[in-house]
Amino acid sequence: MGTTIRGGRRRGRVAAALGLMGELLITLGLVLALFVGYSLWWTDVVAARAAGLEGDKLRQTWSAPAAPSPGVEAPVPEYQAGDGVGFLHVPAFEKDDRTTLIRMGTSTDVLNEGVAGVYEEPYRSAMPWDAEGNFTMAAHRDGHGAKFHDLDRLSEGDPVVVETRDSWYVYRVAGTLQQTSKYNVGVVAPVPEGSPFTGPGRYLTLTTCTPVYTSRYRMAVWATLVRVDPVDDHRTPPPELR
């Protein structure tokens, strides 16, 4: 009789322990689900709001008249980390991601605001208006705006347009690299390594993490400048964006 009672108590304690463990696992699962929701949804909301405000501010500065002295060319702007440069337009992306604010820098603080950041190291990026060089940018692929989530959609011949205060820079994709080491800095070199380019030119490089939801590797898309259209009074976009 005593043995039976003791055995029942042991089974009861085991059942209670298993029940407690089950509850803890359920709680842990809920916490993880909330964290994933925060990372992949709420950070997108916050980043989109921040990028929208910064984009509006940049366009407001563009609307202010620039009046250089007669016969004197306007100085080429010098940008510091965090400064707004323009907008990146990628028709191949999903509708909400087709236009992205471009800011200087690729620090976490910059990229987490839902923008495309311009590389300042290990190679300082050329700018679109430079006579030659590689205009290089990075953006998140998931969370914090995920502006390059669809980067793998780009293929040879697709248009990519950079909008600045005075010009539309129209590029065409010339090559892609689906996966490489995150330490492969050659993909953003002035003449990017592994690209179809063999000498100096006016190039564009877009990079992001891959596979989706990881930061294990990097993906790169290379494009070459094909045309520069001046901005008119109505800011009419080039045919590639209509």
TrEMBL record:
**Sorted alphabetically, which CDD domains does this protein's record hold?**
Sortase_E (cd05830)
Question: Active site located where?
Answer: 140, 209
Q: Which Gene3D superfamilies match?
A: Sortase
Q: Which SUPFAM superfamilies match?
A: Sortase
Instruction: Give the source species.
Output: Kitasatospora griseola
Note whether Transmembrane helix occurs among the keywords.
yes
Q: Which domain of life is it from?
A: Bacteria
Keywords attached to this entry: Hydrolase, Membrane, Transmembrane, Transmembrane helix
| GO function term, MF aspect, one | hydrolase activity
Name listed for the protein in its UniProt record: Membrane protein
Which residue ranges run through the membrane?
Answer: 12-41
